[in-house]
Amino acid sequence: xxxxxxxxxxxxxxxxxxxxxxxxxxxxxxxxxxxxxxxxxxxxxxxxxxxxxxxxxxxxxxxxxxxxxxxxxxxxxxxxxxxxxxxxxxxxxxxxxxxxxxxxxxxxxxxxxxxxxxxxxxxxxxxxxxxxxxxxxxxxxxxxxxxxxxxxxxxxxxxxxxxxxxxxxxxxxxxxxxxxxxxxxxxxxxxxxxxxxxxxxxxxxxxxxxxxxxxxxxxxxxxxxxxxxxx
Length: 231
Known about the structure:
The protein is an alpha+beta fold. The chain is built from six helices and 17 strands. The protein has a six-stranded mixed β-sheet with strand order 2-1-13-6-7-10. Strand 15 and strand 16 form a beta hairpin. The relative contact order is 0.27.
């Protein structure tokens, strides 16, 4: 399992890939996939401790299906659906933790989002899910709960841009390398978590939950020198 973090040279995140999520954050619907990066240092592996909330940060959860790349991919034709699936080694469930107030400020001022997405522990991942356990990644059910209250629960068939298009757009810009992680977007229901909350997430195939896809993490306060201030 540690190899997922060690082998990930980059984490590529697809934004605004579910229509209801776009509406809940009052964002514009993209005409093509757009993406941003999270540092591999943000990855939190199972049983590696809590998610840490920095001082002054309003922290939101976003559950996503993660693709673990199995080979290098460049300039993939979006019509090559089999080529896209063949390039994937396996899957995981991920939670794209977001410093929402830092992100909102960055949007208002035209600044990058790196701080909002890049804190240590801001990407809890499940165990590796073998490819055979998810025969169709566009027909999986993601869920996330906070303190046993369901917050997100939707199918990946609601993606606006399917995986071949996602991998095509990314690989036109930068090579996807073996071990890289691609987060495919989050459905509706995102919201905040507070210190002491317990976040659980997972994935179901044909109504059956995959044990490897379960995440359970607590939220703790983060020490250190960082404290959010307006830029």
